[in-house]
Write a structure and sequence with these properties.
By secondary structure, the protein is mostly beta strands. It has a single domain, classed as Lipocalin (Beta Barrel). The chain is 7% helix and 70% strand. The longest helix has 23 residues. It is elongated. The chain starts with a helix and ends with a strand.
């Protein structure tokens, strides 16, 4: 019995000494976790949506016309980056460029500015779509396999729409009667949207290696600079400047799955809404400024491939 106890004691002492020796051994170097992690991603976004504007008389008591661009379809290539620091701080952003490839314009004019009521249809042909977003933020809740972030940033979007042809669908025979051929350009709308983003994002496990990243952003300050060019209107002297200020919101979610420790694939969706109140400036055409309300809604799905580097 005493011999067995002595053997156990000696074995325990040897293991303890070996552990202390290993911890104190200057030749055993443990890998350090990098201070920064950088992730690059490429995406394809198929988008849909609509945009519209209401033009008033001298005040918003009288609605003169409404232009509704509906059934928009777009295709965009997009690059994204995210840089994380071990402290929980991060910077992220993305930029995309593509085209609006289809849609319809309904141009309505209302009495008493015109009589009787007029409504025309025109087809949209391929034009540009570009956008970028950049955010800086930090983790407000950080767990072993999840995190909750807060961020602030900036969003920009450029959308150009061009309508061809014109067919009267109401009873006003003085507008687009007979119809304008589909080969003739009639209206160009060129808008630049800017916004401040304030939001929250969460990254959580779903099942096995599948993860879900969701974010929502409130846009407390949105401003619009654009032009409207009615190409067949002889009474208008070129593009009409348009502006506005307002608000909006954005949502995005993506499911990702790692193929390797560094490479992942994902599928996601997003929704953007922005709206403004401002003016259309007709002074260059001998008129005055008139109140104008604008809004845009874009949404769709995207595919992503991403690669993570453990250092900058």
């Amino acid at each position: 019995m005493l011999k067995r106890a002595a053997i156990i004691a000696v074995t325990a002492a040897a293991l303890s000494a070996g552990a202390h020796a290993s911890a104190a051994n200057p030749f055993i170097i443990e890998a350090e976790k990098p201070a920064f992690t950088t992730t690059f991603a490429l995406r394809y976004w198929y988008g849909m949506g609509s945009t519209s504007k209401d033009l008033y008389g001298l005040t918003r008591d009288t609605l003169n016309s409404r232009l509704s661009y509906t059934g928009l379809q777009s295709h965009s290539a997009e690059a994204a980056i995210r840089v994380d620091h071990e402290s929980g701080l991060f910077w992220k952003g993305y930029a995309g460029f593509g085209a609006v490839t289809g849609g319809n314009l309904q141009d309505e004019d209302f009495p008493p500015g015109i009589s009787p009521y007029s409504s025309t249809n025109s087809a949209l042909q391929t034009q540009e779509l570009g956008y970028l977003s950049t955010d800086f933020g930090g983790a407000i809740l950080l767990g072993r396999d999840f995190r909750l972030d807060a961020f602030a940033g900036y969003h920009y979007m450029h959308m150009r729409l061009k309508a061809f042809g014109c067919t009267q669908t109401a009873t006003n025979t003085s507008v687009c009667t007979p119809p304008v051929a589909d080969s003739v350009a009639v209206i160009v709308q060129d808008n630049n949207w800017h916004a401040v983003r304030l939001g929250l994002a969460a990254d959580i496990p779903v099942f096995d290696k599948l993860r879900l990243n969701i974010e929502g952003a409130y846009l407390p300050w949105v401003w619009l600079n654009g032009t409207d060019n009615h190409l067949l209107r002889a009474d208008l002297n070129g593009p009409t400047p348009e502006d506005g200020n307002g608000w909006g919101y954005q949502f995005e979610a993506i499911l990702t799955y790692p193929i390797t420790d560094a490479f992942s694939v994902g599928v996601g969706g997003r929704y953007w809404h922005m709206q403004t109140k401002g003016n259309a400036d007709f002074t260059a055409s001998g008129g005055t400024t008139q109140p104008l309300d604008f809004k845009v809604d874009l949404y769709g799905v995207f595919l992503q491939g991403s690669y993570r580097f453990d250092a900058l």
